[in-house]
Design brief:
The structure is a single chain. This protein is α/β, with parallel strands linked by helices and 532 residues long. The protein folds into 3 domains: 279 residues, Alpha-Beta Barrel (TIM Barrel), CATH 3.20.20.70; 90 residues, no CATH class; 129 residues, Alpha-isopropylmalate synthase LeuA, regulatory domain (Double Stranded RNA Binding Domain). The protein has 18 helices and 18 strands. Strands 2-3-4-5-6-7-8-9 form an 8-stranded parallel β-barrel, surrounded by 8 helices. Strands 13-14-15 form a 3-stranded antiparallel sheet, with helices on one face. β17 and β18 form a beta hairpin. It is globular and about 75 Å long. It starts with 5 loop residues before the first strand and ends with a helix. The chain binds 3-methyl-2-oxobutanoic acid and zinc ion.
Length: 532
């Protein structure tokens, strides 16, 4: 008889570590949208943010705790805090409306971090752990402790730090590979050592949090599970600081496809993976590489004739996992030009996006316009319409109309009509090519001084009438922003992407301005000294 399957908790940190990806930043409304989708995916814990970092971060966590955190079967809503009183009190306040709140407090335990960053000795760090976990426990019953840079820590000292956290009341102990330095055998070894030797370790949940600097984050997370960890911290599409975090979809599907090997599973509804991936990609502007496992465009595409022949005879010859299991519809046709408002509402409900009457009116108007340009509409197209609906209301710059002329005889000219802070403006300008003409004209209209770092275009769904998706990266005074735009006309998509990046840059400039308005100490405190 087979052994009982063990359950692994999925701790999603897309909204916190994921948002630390260079160039990615999300608005509050976008974070709420992602959190709602994470709840549909059925994650166990949502790390909603780092409330002390800025008022905006605080508000985002508060909103998620009050909304998603109040669903009948709501996930745990978690807020991050350094091991200092101010952070813990802010974190506690931010999640007070959640049915299941958690405070996640951390401090570094490696010699280099303690000496150079914290300027604290090991004894002081142990005292800070005891104090901060106890304070967090006075505020909530569910406390997680992380020993930052655990894999470059002295293991005897790390064991003392873990013991201090358990004795102070932490129920989850996270052992992060903060700099992506670990290898799978080393991960197994460290987890086994801590679970076997630290007093009280058997009564808490051990968790892993692996960064991908050496491309080992998923392998390291699976190794931690084999050694007894029962929580994985991960992000959608593997986004996160530097090279990112372990990709949730990869960890979960590895456990599911190789269930007999691991004898472990999660509560995740994997059919929601593809949709979640697209949503996170569109709100962060972080493109998913085509060969990305599970959710990449080519993840289920078979090119070689031998493979295709094998598949036709029996899918199992070359397919270890059916695309439908992760929500890849294979370009499922959903609606057409003649579909009415009711059919659209039905389909959006089925996709898990119930809209109110006003929202539906707006999306339906866009749907009709798109259906005039494109014969067949797929779920992916509807998702683009929805993400535009979500973002436009709050953007400073909104494209209204665009006319571009060019060719072999005429210099490329763009006429742009756009709204700036709700007021309509119109301007025409020349460029070296049609996209250059659009970007130069928009720059003049917005007063932007951003440098175009990269520009790329790809097709969403097939056919010559497919939606083209353009991604641009802009840089201004060291701030990086990514924007995406989709349309059947790639020049319109180019303009939308440029404006999306400019809007994101505006928000980043505002946030940076707010931070520098704090006292130097506060800035030092929040940004440098202990930021994860
Ligand atoms: O990478 C890291 O160490 C972190 C901690 C805050 C868990 O993100
Ligand atoms: Zn991290």
């Amino acid at each position: 008889m087979s052994e009982k399957i063990g359950m692994v908790k999925i701790f999603d940190t897309t909204l916190r570590d994921g948002e630390q990806s260079p160039g990615a930043s999300m608005q509050r409304e976008e974070k709420l949208q992602v959190a709602r989708q994470l709840a549909r995916l059925n994650v166990d814990v949502i790390e909603a943010g780092f409330p002390v970092a800025s008022p905006d971060d605080f508000e985002a966590v508060w909103e998620i705790a009050s909304d998603v955190g109040n669903l009948p079967d709501s996930p745990v809503i978690c807020a991050l805090a350094r091991s200092v009183e101010k952070d813990i009190l802010e974190a506690a306040r931010s999640v007070e409306n959640a049915r299941s709140p958690r405070i996640h407090t951390f401090i570094a335990t490696s010699p280099i971090h303690m000496a150079k960053k914290l300027k604290m000795g090991p004894e002081e760090v142990l005292r800070a752990i005891g104090r901060s976990v106890s304070l967090a426990r006075k505020k909530v019953s569910d406390v997680e402790f992380s020993a930052e840079d655990a894999f470059r820590s002295d293991r005897t000292f790390l064991a003392q730090a873990v013991r201090a956290a358990i004795e102070a009341g932490a129920g989850t102990i996270n052992i992060p590979d903060t700099v992506g330095y670990a290898v799978p055998e080393g991960v197994k070894d460290l987890f086994s050592f801590l679970i076997e030797t630290v007093p009280g370790a058997k009564g808490v949940v051990f968790s892993c949090h692996c960064h991908d600097d050496l491309g080992l984050s998923v392998a390291n997370s699976l190794a931690a599970l084999e050694a007894g960890a029962r929580q994985v911290e991960c992000t959608v599409n593997g986004i996160g600081e530097r090279a990112g975090n372990a990709a949730m979809e990869e960890v979960v599907m590895a456990l599911r496809v190789r269930k007999s090997w691991f004898n472990l599973d999660t509560r995740i509804r994997s059919e929601e993976f593809y949709r979640t991936s697209r949503l996170v990609s569109s709100v962060t502007g972080m493109v998913v590489q085509p060969n990305k496992a599970i959710v990449g465009e080519n993840a289920f595409a078979h090119e070689s004739g031998i493979h295709q022949d094998g598949l036709l005879k029996d899918k199992d010859t070359y397919e270890i996992l059916a695309p439908e299991k992760v929500g890849v519809s294979g370009g499922r046709l959903v609606l057409g030009k003649h579909s009415g408002r009711h059919a659209l509402k039905d389909r959006l409900d089925q996709m898990g996006y119930p809209l109110d009457a006003e929202e539906l009116d707006r999306v339906f108007a866009r749907f009709k316009k798109l259906a005039d340009q494109k014969k067949e509409l797929y779920e992916e197209d509807l998702e683009v319409l929805l993400s535009e609906e979500e973002s436009q209301a709050k953007d400073r710059f909104v494209l209204k109309r665009l006319h571009v002329s060019g060719g072999t005889e005429i210099p490329p000219t763009a006429t742009v009509v756009m709204e700036r802070d709700g007021v309509e403006h119109r301007m025409a300008g020349l460029g070296d090519g049609p996209v250059d003409a659009i970007y130069r004209t928009v720059s003049k209209m917005t007063g932007a001084d951003a440098r175009l770092v990269s520009y790329s275009v790809k097709a969403i769904t097939g056919g010559t009438d497919a939606l083209g998706e353009v991604t641009v990266r802009l840089e201004e005074n060291g701030l990086l922003a990514i924007g995406q735009g989709a349309d059947t006309d790639i020049l319109v998509a180019s303009a939308k992407a440029y404006l999306a990046a400019l809007n994101r840059l505006e928000r980043k400039k505002n946030k940076a301005g707010r931070l520098s308005a704090e006292t130097p100490d506060q800035v030092q405190d929040a940004r440098i000294q202990g930021s994860p």
